[in-house]
Amino acid sequence: MRQAIKMKPIKHNQGEATRHSILVAAERIFADVGFATARLEDVALAVGIRRPSIIYYFANKQDLYDAVEHDIFESMHAMAPGPAGEHPIDNLLALLDGWLDFLVGRPTAARIIMRLVADTTPRHGDPTRYSNLVLSDIDAIVTDGIASGDFRPMPPMHVVNAVGSSSLFYVCNSRQLGDGRSYAAADPKSLASFRSLLHKLARAAVDPNGGNSK
After folding, report:
1. What confidence score (pLDDT) does residue 211 get?
2. What is the distance of C-alpha 204 from the center of its chain?
3. Cβ neighbours for 75, distance < 8 A, ≥ 6 positions apart
4. What percent of the chain has pLDDT above 90?
5. Residue 69 contacts residue 30 (beta carbons within 8 Å)
6. Burial class of residue 160, CB neighbours in 10 A (0-12, 13-18, 19+)
7. What does R_g of the chain's alpha carbons equal in angstroms?
8. Could you give the CA distance from residue 133 to residue 74 in angstroms, rounded to a whole number?
9. pLDDT digit string (tens) for 95-143?
10. pTM, 2 dp
11. Which of 12, 84, 121, 144 has the fewest beta carbons closer than 10 A?
12. Quick one: 201 exposed, middle or buried, by C-beta within 10 A (0-12, 13-18, 19+)?
């Protein structure tokens, strides 16, 4: 009787692991030096592979950057909770908390978003190609709050610029303020203090009974 030949399982996940390693290294390099200065050779060196291996997964630097940015905003969107309570302010605070926790846990993403705000060159005239997913989350919450009368009328992007963007500065500025002013963004005490301030800013921004004085 012929003995059955045992076949070794094909490691389908090896390619996916390499692709993930490339994305992680690329995100760090794009965050550190920006799109224009980043080189595929540097990414390959960080991963421990050769440049042609990157081309196997990503056609060029633009393709790689697009994949990094897409993953950032997809992941940030995934941090957005569902309805957090009966009142729109509960949903807004929960969303802002999700953004803050994501950025604190992934500071390279925070730095890339900051770079994108200052320089839209990588997006070639379409700056919200990937970020629109996240912007739509806050659009919906603020619009619902205004419709219900819980929020004062305002463009939802005012909330992004005046309140949501502060989380970017909290993360990116932690080591940029000079001696005696630095902090660890992920430190529980520091994070709790900033979160409390973030909530106060958000409540004040949308309060239908305030914000009318010039």
Report:
1. 53
2. 24
3. 102, 106, 109
4. 79
5. no
6. middle
7. 21
8. 7
9. 999 999 999 999 999 999 999 998 888 888 788 999 999 999 999 999 9
10. 0.88
11. 12
12. middle
Name 143's Cβ contacts closer than 8 Å, sequence gap at least 6: 156
Q: How confident is the model at residue 12 (pLDDT cuts 50, 70, 90)?
A: low
Amino acid at 212: N
Residues making up the chain, counted from first to last:
214
Structure tokens at 155: 């463009």
Q: Are 54 and 43 in contact (CB under 8 A)?
A: yes
Phi, psi of 8 (to 5 degrees): -70, 135
pLDDT over 70 percentage in the chain: 91
Contact 58, 64 (CB under 8 A): yes
The 8-class DSSP code of residue 3 comes to: P
Residue 77: how many other CB atoms lie within 10 Å? 19
Between the alpha carbon of residue 19 and those of residues 16, 43, 66, the distances in Å are: 5, 12, 14
- Is residue 195 within 8 Å of residue 97, measured between CB atoms? yes
Torsion 159-164-170-172 (CA) sign: negative
pLDDT grade for 76, boundaries at 50, 70 and 90: very high
Distance between CA 214 and CA 210 in Å, rounded? 11
Q: For residue 1, what are the CA distances in angstroms to 4, 6, 28, 200?
A: 9, 15, 57, 78
Q: Which two tokens stand for residue 182?
A: 């630095």
